[in-house]
Design goal:
By secondary structure, the protein is of the alpha/beta class. It has 3 domains: 28-135 and 237-244 and 260-285, D-Maltodextrin-Binding Protein, domain 2; 139-234, Periplasmic binding protein-like II (D-Maltodextrin-Binding Protein, domain 2); 287-328. The chain is 36% helix and 13% strand. It has helices at 28-33, 42-47, 61-71, 87-92, 173-178, 180-185, 196-204, 214-219, 253-273, 287-336; strands at residues 50-54, 77-81, 113-117, 129-137, 139-144, 210-213, 225-229, 236-243. The strands form 2 sheets. A 5-stranded mixed β-sheet has the order 2-1-3-8-4. Helix 3 (61-71) links the parallel strand 1 (50-54) and strand 2. The N and C termini lie far apart (145 Å).
Length: 349
């Protein structure tokens, strides 16, 4: 399969209702990361409120569908098919340069978020990126349909001890250990393999076998090839990745509000991939809204506490008044009784 980027034609005029403040032309580096330029034209990318890239073989369709159903009218989503291994690069490559010389242009990445495989060559730095593990892909070995190992429903790494894999032994230590003697007796040169598609072509040519995610094997399906699961190989994790927000606050109030609104979009998509329902409002709250809500809750709590204190004080005053009144009444009653007469000194007769 030829994966050479297609030439990007100039963007067609966008209707006034959908045209942004500045017209854009897709930058060449960004165009080189897109699997198919026709699938993500510049007007669609510039109009989208949220741009999410995904690598070949991953399956984000259900999440994209839910977004379009819930937020499609108010926050359009651009689905960007990326080339293999371009997930992180899409987050740091500029979408375009606005055709404006006034003011400082704000950096706009090709993708705001990326759905990608975490591999040894492409692992997100935790200090720079947020990452959510979405699911794991089953590893399979791609081989010709007439290969002897096709009699097995699953092919453990040990069964490939006398097979040439299009991998370094370090990638699959169990296979490296089991095949060490065979490889010493049958030394072979491992060719450079830029992409999964190139590896599949080498398998078809009879050069060796190739272990890859099942989704990739299906994506590059050929009539003369098949695949079998490899039960003792590590699964391939698929992550949702996006850049961390800079620690320094934005001095521009207007831009700060835009950042809050954009953070809402990020949290809404996270809610979708985590299975939150449309009725859930978690994540759909800006920072300013959160501050307002918290301040209101604190004010209510303070008012409630003051009211409780006032009631308690009134109760204490009433109790004190009741006690004071009772003592006064007892004193008054005592003073109203006739006093005792003095002692008689005379004898009774």
């Amino acid at each position: 399969m030829n994966e050479t980027p297609e030439a990007v034609t100039p963007a067609e005029p966008v209707p006034p209702s959908t045209q942004q403040e500045h017209s854009i032309e897709l930058a060449a580096p960004a165009a080189g990361l897109i699997y198919s330029a026709e699938a993500a034209p510049a007007p669609v990318l510039s109009h989208a409120s949220l741009r999410i890239g995904y690598e070949p073989g991953v399956m984000p369709g259900k999440w994209f569908t839910r977004w379009h159903e819930r937020y499609g009218r108010t926050a359009p989503l651009a689905e960007i098919p990326l080339r293999e291994g371009a997930g992180l690069e899409a987050l740091t490559t500029a979408l375009s340069t606005p055709n404006s010389t006034s003011g400082e242009a704000r950096f706009e990445p090709l993708a705001h978020m990326a759905i990608m495989r975490a591999t040894a060559q492409e692992t997100p730095d935790k200090d720079r990126y947020h990452s959510i593990r979405l699911y794991e892909e089953v590893p399979v070995v791609v081989l010709s349909k007439d290969h002897v190992l096709t009699v097995l429903d699953e092919v453990p790494l040990g069964e490939m001890a006398e097979e040439f894999l299009l991998h370094e032994p370090e990638e699959f230590p169990a296979w490296g250990e089991a095949s060490q003697q065979w490889r010493q007796q049958n030394p072979r040169f491992l060719p450079q393999i830029p992409t999964h598609a190139d590896a599949i072509e080498l398998v078809a040519a009879g050069v060796g076998l190739y272990i890859t995610p099942m989704s990739v094997a299906r994506l590059h399906h050929r009539k003369d090839l098949t695949y079998r699961p490899v039960p003792d190989a590590e699964p391939y994790p698929v992550h949702l990745v996006w850049p961390r927000t800079p620690a320094a606050p934005t001095p521009d109030t207007v831009q700060g509000e835009k950042d809050d609104e954009f953070e809402v979009l990020i949290q809404d998509f996270i809610g979708i991939v985590r299975g939150r329902t449309a009725s859930s409002n978690r994540g759909s709250e800006t920072a300013q809204a959160r501050r307002t809500r918290i301040a209101g809750e604190r004010a209510k709590a303070t008012a409630k506490s003051r009211a409780a204190n006032a009631r308690q004080e009134a109760c204490h005053q009433k109790t004190a008044a009741s006690r004071t009144g009772g003592t006064s009444r007892r004193k008054a009653a005592a003073s109203s009784k006739p006093g005792r007469k003095g002692k008689r000194t005379g004898k009774r007769r």
